[in-house]
Amino acid sequence: MAPSSAQVQRLTTDDAAWDAFVRRDPRGTYLQLSGWATVKAASGWRHHRVVTDAGAGPVGLQVLVRSLGPGPFAVGYAPRGPVGASDPESLRALTARLTTVARRERLSHVTIDPPWPVVADDTGTASGESAAETEGAAGVEPTPSGSTARASVPAGDPAATLRSLGWVASDAVQHDRTRVVDLTDTDRMWQDVRSRTRRYVNAARKSGITVTREGEAAIPEFHRLLAATASRAGFFAREAGTYARLLEVFGDDAWMLMARTADGTAVAGLQLIRCGDTVVEPSGGMDDAGAETRANHLLKWESMALAASLGATRYDMWGIAHGGIDQFKAGFGGLELRYPGAFDLQTLPLLRPAFLAARRTWVRMARRRSGLDRQPQEETAR
Questions:
Q1: Of 66, 37, 41, 57, residue with least CA distance to 49
Q2: Which domain holds residue 163?
Q3: What is the tens place of the pLDDT at every residue in 98-134?
């Protein structure tokens, strides 16, 4: 067996080898780790791993699979995949292999939302290379030093390659914009926090707000805060057990921070997960008291500081849902990144439109029942 074939086989079948591969990739996220497949298995998802190597190095996907009703058909989803090489030949080989697997498993289609960023400045303009944030953008206070966060931007246009290979644009699942902060210089991190945000951080600390790292016992309080935020912002929150499973499955790579008032009341919380050198904040919430005391500002800063102290080099705020969230997160500096969106590989073209129509109807009805009148945000991810 050729060395590359042996490596492909190992990445396909060995969870530890695959996880190490994902963690080494600067664009790898926890959604492609085997632990996420374990978390999703509790809600009925199984998974397949598809890996190829066309000569530029391995490229692969962890595809979550869920049945479409009682029949033989299913749908596949590889969140923030693929991982690895993104040159045209690698993507061509991966598409061919994935097509074979999808047909064997009777998948109507496979959805991906690739982790290939472009850099956007504070005016919302996207570019293909790292650049300092635009100083003095309308309505936005510039960061003091105009810093940049390191962005791993792929060469060429891999999204265009996907389209040429027959992939088609699909409904968004993950966020298509985020903000990333460079953690390699903690002094610079504080300098890059905008002056208004620094005042709020200090005010929260002076008012007696404290931030502590907590465990599964705090899940009910965390979920209460998350549900309150979901109701205000218009997204669906997962059931509380999911957040407990995340802590259990990811172990030392997952933690929860809670902001509490002087009397111990939880007013804001964040759940953080590490993958390689990057820490992300997939879930968080606060109540009215958290907003009034600016506890969320102190919590955000402390979460970034903790990630830096643990050796992480990047902090991904994991989505910019709307203008208010955009301004809040921009106050902590960093660089805005944009992603190319979701793509579908169709293997049963007649079934995919019916699935998309059914999913859109389900989301619309669920939002109506919940009284939500805005677009789904980060917590709607499958």
A1: 37
A2: 3-117+154-173+340-380
A3: 999 999 999 999 999 999 998 765 444 454 433 222 2
